[in-house]
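Annex B. Sample input.
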Amino acid sequence: MSPRCPCASAILSVTCTCSSSRRMRRPTMAEHLPEDYAARARSALKSGNYLYSYDILAQAQLAGGQITRELQYLMILALANAGSTRHALEQYRKLDLQADELNEDWLALEGRLLKDLAIQSLPHSQALFLSSAAAYRHSHERTGGYFSGINAATMFALGGERERSRTLAREVMSMVGAISPRDDRDHFYLLATEAEAALLLADFKRCEECLRAADRLLPDDLNSRSRTRSQLKLLCRQLGIDGKPYRLLRMPPVVYVEPDTHGMQRPPRGALLSQVGNTAPLMFMAVLEPAQLVEAEHCLEHGARLYAIIPGARADEIGRWHRSYGGAWAGRLARCLEQAHEVSVARGFLDGETDFCLSYIADMSLGLSRLTAKRLGGEWTAVKSSDGKLLASADFGLEGEAQSPGQHRSLAPLALPPNRRYVGLIFADFLGFQRLGDAELPRFSSDVMGAAAKLLARHRERILFRHTWGDAIHIVTDDAQTAAEIVTELNDFIAAPLRSSGGQLAELEIRLAAHYAPVFVGHDPIEETLTYYGTQLSCTARIEPVTPPGMVYVTEAFAARLALEAPQHFALDYAGEVELAKRYGKYRLFSLRKKRRAPIKNEGES
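Annex B, continued. Sample output.
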C-alpha cells in the first residue's frame, strides 16, 4: 500500500502539493481508471476493511484526473463506516449535487449519516432522528425505493412521530409484497424490511414469520444479520415493545477460551465445543504451543470460526515452532492459521518472552471476544481450556453493554522483566501544519499547544512521559484507559481553539493514534531523563499519518485492553486494516469515541 498523502482528506481535491506526495511517484489515470479505483474500494468496503477503502480512494486523488461522483460517494461511505461520521457528513454537505445525480444511494446517504449520529447520542436524539427521517423520506419520494421508505418510517417512530411512521410502514409493506427477489441477498433484505414494517404496525405475528424466513438465508453473513438485528432491537427498546422478535434472526455465540497458565495441560478432545452445542461458534483462543493447537484444529474440524491470537508475526511464529517443536508441528500450525477466520498478532515481544506474553495474549483474546460479541449483539461465554468448564456468560444489549455479569476475573498486572513495561502509547500531529508561516507559529504554540498542555495536566498522575517537537505530540501512559481519555479529549478540546484562531490555524485538523504494547524503560543519555523506547513506539507513530482526520484510531491490542479496563465508557468500532511502511506489517484499527450523553446540535441549530 502506498503512503497516504496528508491532503487526501479533502474529497474534492484533485491535486496534492504536500511533501509526502512529492516523495512518491504518482500513478497516472492511464494506469488506473476511476472505475478501477471504485471497484477496489467497493471490494474493500464489502470485506469490512473501511480504512483500506479510504486509502485506495486517497490514491485515486493522488493520481490526478477526474474525481467522479462515484469515488466521492465511496469516500464518504468509507469515512462513515470507519467511524468518522461527523467528518463524512461535513463532506457530504459540501458537495454541489445536481438534480440528475441524486439517485437513491446519494439521497439516502445523508439519512444514514444522521441516523448514525443519532444512535451515538442516545438518549438525546429526537431532533437527529427526525432530520434523518426527513432525508430518508425525501429519498423515498424521489426514487420510490423501499430501503429509503422503511428507514424513514423507523426514524419517524424513533423521533416520536408514530402516525407518520405507520403511514410509511403500510406503504412499504405493500411495496415489498409486490417485489420478486433476484437472489438470496435480495430476498433477505425484502423479508427484513417486511419484518421491520410489521413491527412498526404492531403486527408481531407477521414480523416473526418474516424473521424466521430470513433466518434461513445468508447464514454466514454476520454483518448483514447483526445490522438488521441492531435496528430491530433499537425499535423494540425505544418504543417499549415487549418481547425480543429480533432473536429469531440467530447469531452464533462468541466463545473466549482462557488458556491454562499452569503447565499447559492438554484439554480433553472436544471439551471446549461441549459448552456451545451444535452451533458454529466464534472461538477466540491463544495458540502458543501444541496442546492449544490440537484443540484449535478440533474446533475447525467441527465448523467453528477460529480467531487465533499468536505472539508474533505469522512467519516468525512458524519459524519459532519449527525450532522449538519440529517441522511437523510447524506445518500443522501453518495450516491451522491458514484455515482460521482471523489471526491477530501480539507485537513487541522478544524471542525469549513467550511466558511473559501469555497473560497479555489471554487478555487480548478476552477483550477481542467481548468486542465481537458487542458488535454482533449476541451471546458471549468464557470457558477454561484445560477442561472446557464454563467460567462466565453474558448477553449484550443494543449499545453493547452486558445484560448479565460477564467479566469473570479482575485485571491482574501483566508481568514483564524489570526493564520492560506495558504502556499506553499516543502519537498526534496536525494536518496542514506545514502550511503555517512564522507569523502563525507563536499563536499555534500558545493557543493550540497551550490548550493541549492544560488538558494533559488533568491526567499528570497517570502520564509516564510526554514529549513534543514541531506539531507532534508523544505521550506514554500507565494504562489504556488514561490514553483513551486523553486522545478523545484532545480530539474535542483542540477543535475549539483551532476554529476560533482564524487564518491557516483554523484549517488545521488533529490526527491521533493510540496503541497498548510492551516497551523498554531506560535512561536517555542525551536528554538525561527516563525514557521509553521500542519498535511499538515506531509503529504507533506510523499509524496516525495513514488514517483520516477528525477521529481517533487505535490498534486492536489497545481496543482489546480498553474493553477490559473501561468497557462502559468508550465505544470502539472496527475500522479496517492498514499496512505500515518500513516492514512494520499490517495493523487492524478501531475507531474510538467516548460514549456521550449530551445532545448533538443539528444543522441550523444555534
